[in-house]
Structures are given as C-alpha cells and as structure tokens.
Write a structure and sequence with these properties.
By secondary structure, this protein is α+β, with helices and mostly antiparallel strands. It has a single domain (about 5-235), classed as Hotdog Thioesterase (Thiol Ester Dehydrase, Chain A, Roll), CATH 3.10.129.10. Helices cover about 15% and strands about 40% of the residues.
C-alpha cells in the first residue's frame, strides 16, 4: 500500500553563482533562454533526498536513486518535495515549484548489494584539460582521479564528486546536469579521503544538445566502495534552445 510522506519545503538557493560552470551565472544563463542562473542539480538532489533520509536513514548505507532534472529551479524559488512510498518499498519523489511545474523526478529504493564491482584504477588528472568533443569522449576512456577529504557526509556532497571529475578532466563551457543513477554501498564518514574514479560510458545527441554519460566510483581511504554513479550531463547545450 502506498503512503504519502510529509511534504518537504525549502527556498531554493543558487549555491554556485561563482562556479566555473557559468550556467549558474544570471547573465550567461539568460543567453540560453533561462530567467536566471540555474540552481545546481546536486543541490536539488539534496532537497529531494531530505524526506527519503528522514523516512529511511539506512538509505545512506545501502540505498539507490534515479533522478532526472526536467526544468530548472532559480534562486529564491519555493520548492515543494513530494514523496510517496510504493508497495514494493520504493519511494517516488517529485520536486516542484510552488504553484508551478514538476522540475525534477526520481525513484529511491533500499538495496542490499552483495557483489561489488571491481574498482577502477587511479589515474592522473590531465596537465591541460582538453575541450570535450566526441572524438575524445569515446566509451571506455578512463578519467583522471579526483582525491579530496570530505568535511560533510551530506548526500549532495558525494554527488558533487561526479561533477568535479567532469570539470577536472575537461575544460567545459556552460553545461547542465541532466540525470544521475546513484547506488550507495556504504556510508561516507567525515574526515575520510575520497578517491573519485571514472570512465566515459557513452555520448549521444538529443534535440541539438550534446550529452556525455560517465560512470563514477567513490572509494574511501583507498579501499572501501562508498558510491557508484552513472552521471549524465549536457556538455554542449544547443544555442538558445530554451528561448
């Protein structure tokens, strides 16, 4: 039997107005037809997980989530996150503007993973980041490793590694986080050193946008698998596609 969880309400904050990704800048985003800088997808993902973690805190240890970002939130928007448990134990989530459209949707589940994938090897970051293009985004291409100590175990901080591995390997222009498929294998702990390793999964075009999909692994202190992510980004949005 399905059950509605309490609605989570929050005021959207553009947490990256000074990011290298200028899609979070008001002026640059306006050139693509948006009314302001986009609130980062990882920030929205954090909003969407609030009712999930409150309902099932064990999700941080062994949960999964598929999320798609459909329309942007802007700084100051009133966000309503609606979540509903299903009979199979999954949780369906929608984040919407108050009196507005659904901007992101997702499904979270509790999983018991028994067979862990083999970790990707660590690789050096490029000395000079190349501009992404189809000929250097071949499936199976390994990415340079991002290593950082974390000072928070909030779920959005972990997903930020999947953005960082893209930005540290390629010189991106304005780009958009489109979707993520996240699987947790263990909980990260504050103070741990996280090694984010990845490879290119695929590229494709849709409606004039150029997409890249990367597979990312987060390894804690060199040995424990924390999270795997299939991360989808529009690395080259179509000009003025959103007008």
């Amino acid at each position: 039997m399905s059950r509605l969880l309490p609605v989570y309400r929050v005021r959207a904050v553009n947490t990256a107005p000074d990011s290298e990704n200028q899609m979070h800048d008001d002026g640059v985003a306006a050139r693509y037809g948006f009314r302001g800088g986009l609130v980062p997808g990882i920030t929205v993902y954090g909003y969407m997980l609030a009712p999930v973690v409150q309902h099932a805190p064990e999700w941080l240890e062994h949960g999964s989530m598929k999320v798609r970002f459909l329309e942007p939130f802007y700084d100051g928007d009133a966000v309503l996150v609606r979540a509903e448990t299903a009979g199979d134990g999954s949780i369906r989530i929608a984040a919407e503007r108050e009196n507005g459209p659904i901007c992101a949707s997702g499904v979270a589940s509790l999983t018991r993973n028994t067979s862990q994938p083999q970790p990707y090897p660590e690789r050096p970051l490029p000395g000079e980041r190349p501009v992404p293009a189809r000929d250097i985004l071949s499936p199976g291409t390994p990415l340079g490793t991002v290593v950082e100590q974390i000072d928070t175990a909030e779920p959005d901080r972990l997903l930020r590694f999947s953005n960082e591995i893209l930005m540290r390997n390629f010189k991106l222009g304005p780009w958009i986080h489109a979707a993520s498929e996240v699987t947790n294998w263990s909980a990260a702990r504050i103070g741990e050193e996280i090694s984010a390793r990845g490879l290119i999964h695929e590229t494709f075009d849709r409606k004039g946008h150029e997409f890249v999909v990367v597979d990312v692994m987060l390894i804690a202190d060199g040995s424990r698998l924390v999270q795997t992510v299939r991360h989808t980004a529009i690395y080259r949005p179509a000009p003025k596609a959103y007008h």
